[in-house]
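Example complex used in Figure S2.
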Amino acid sequence: MNNLVVLPIVLPIMTGIILIFFRNQIGLQRWISFISLLFFIGLAANMVQLVYVDGIQTLYLGGWLPPFGIVLVADMFASLLVLTTAIVALSCLWFSFRSIGIEREKHYYYPFFHFLIAGVSGSFLTGDIFNLFVFFEVMLISSYVLIVLGATKIQLRETLKYLLVNIVSSALFVASVAFLYAITGTLNMADLSVRVAEVGQTGLLNVVALLFLIVFGLKAGLFLYFWLPGSYSAPPTPVAALFAGLLTKVGIYAIFRTFTLIFYHQPGITHEIMAWMAAATMILGVIGAIAFSDIRQVLAFNVVAGVGFIIFGLAAFTSASFQGAIFYLIHDMLVKALLFLLGGAVIGIAGTSNLKQMGGLIKYHPSLGWMFFIAGLALAGVPPLSGFIGKLLLVQGGLTAEFYWITGISLATSLLILYSIIKVFMHAFWGETKLSPKEEKGSEKGLLAPCAVLVFLSFALGLGADYLYPYIEVAAETLMDPSIYIQAVLKE
Amino acid sequence: MEILMSVVVGILFMVGTYLILTKSLLRIILGTGIISHGVHLLLLTMAGLKTGAPPLLGENAALYTDPLPQALILTAIVISFGVTGFFFVLAYRAYKELGTDDMDKLRGNDHE
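Predicted assembly (604 residues):
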C-alpha cells in the first residue's frame, strides 16, 4: 500500500480542473501547467527510485482488497513510462507556449492537455482491465478534442476518421472484456493471470487473446495503422508531438501487459502472429517513410516503423529482447516527440511541409538543423546516441529466439529510416537558400529550448546507459516472470 | 436465452458494420450507436442471464443477478454517450465547414 501511486493520475486531473476556472488568464494557465508538470516529473522520478529500492508498489483504492476492488500497480516498467511521459509532456507544453496561439489557449487547450496526461499515466498504472478501458477513453476523448481544436478543414476531416476508428476499437475492447469475463469471471489483471494459468490457455482464450491483439494493435498502430498517418499530420505541432510520443505507446504498453502477464502460455500462436505483424509493420512503415516528400507524412510513418521494432522485442520473448524493447520504447517516446517538434519548427519557418519547396535553412538556422540531424541519427540507432543500445539488445534477443528473417528486416528498416530522415535533412537544410530571413513565415524563437532538452536526454540515455541499465533489467525481469507481479498484487 | 441474445447481438453487429461501411456520415454515426448497443447487450449476456432478484440487498432474495456487468455497462453507456454527442456535433460542424456528408468526398491527401 502506497498512496504515492495515485498521484500521477490525481495531479494532472486536479490541474486540469483548476485551469478550467482561469479561462482568460493565459499567463496564469501557463505557469500552473508548467509547475504542475515539474512536480509530476519529480513525483515520477521518486516513484521509479522507490520501486527500484522497495519493489512493486500497489494501492488498493478504497481499501478493497483485489480482486474485488480496483488496484493501481506501479512496477518498474510502468514507472519508467510514467517518468518518460512526464518529460515528453513538459517539453511539448513548453513548445506550446510560443506556438499554439492565443485562441486555442483560451479554448481550454491546457486543461485537455492535462486530462490527456492523466489518461496516459492512468493506463500505465492500472491493474484492472476494465479500468484500463476507462483510462483509454479518458485519453482518447482528450485526444479527440486536442486534434480538432481550432477546427481547420483538414483537422475536421481527419478527426472524423480518427474518432470513428477509435469508437470501433473501443467497442471491440469492451466486447473482448465481456468474453474474458465470461470465461474467467474476474477483471483484475493479476487474478486473470492466475485463472488463465489454471484453466490453461486453450482455444477459446486464444481467440480472446487475438481479439485483444487486434484492439491494442489498432490503438498502437501495429499493422492496423491505416488511420495513423492522416490523424498525426492534422493537428498543430505540439499536439502531434504529444500524440507521437504518447498515444501509440499506450497501446504498446497494453500489448506488453496483456501478453506478458495474462496470455503468455501459447507463444507458438500469439507471439508468432505478433512477430509477423511487427515485421509487416516495419516494412510498410518504412515504405511510407521513403515514399512521401512531405515532412509530416515521413515522420508519421516513422512512428509506425518504430512500433514494429518494439513489438518485435516482445514477440521474441527473451530477456535480452525485453530489455531492448523497453529501452527502445523509452528512447522512442523521447525522440519521436523531438522529431515532431523539430519538424513542426521547420514547417513553421518554411510555411509549407512539402520538401520540394524548401531548402538551405541551415544558413540562418544552424542549431535547428544540427539538432534535427542528431535526432535523425538517434532514431536510426547510431552508437553514441540513445537508439543504439535498444536496437543492439533487440537484435541480440531476436537472434537468440532464432527469428533470423525478422531480425534482418529490422536491420534493413533501420537503414531505410536513416535514409528517410536524412532525405528530410538534406532537402530542408542543404541546397540553395530559398527564403531570406525576411520572407520566412515564422520564427524559431523560444521553440528550440524544449527541443534542446530532449536532444540532451537522447545523449544522456546513450552515454549514461550504464546508469539506466539496472532499472531496465528490473523492468524486464518483472515482465519475464509474471509471478513477481501477481505476488505483489495478490499477497495475502 | 443466451443463444437468443447472442443471435440478436450478432444481428446488431452486422447492421452496425453495414452502416459504418456506407458513405453518408449520419448513417455511420447510427452504425456506431447500434454497435455500442450490441456491445452492451453482449456484456450483459456474457455474464449469464440466470434468473434472480435485482441486485438490491433489501430484496432479501436467495439469488441475485450479477451486479458487476451492470456497473460495467453503465460506465460504458455514459462513455459512448459522451463520445456520440461529440461525434454528432463534429459531424454538424464538418457539414457546415466542408459542405458535404459524403465520406468519399472527405478523402483527399492534399493538405488544406
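Chain B has a mean pLDDT of 91. The helical segments of chain B are 2-20, 25-46, 67-98.
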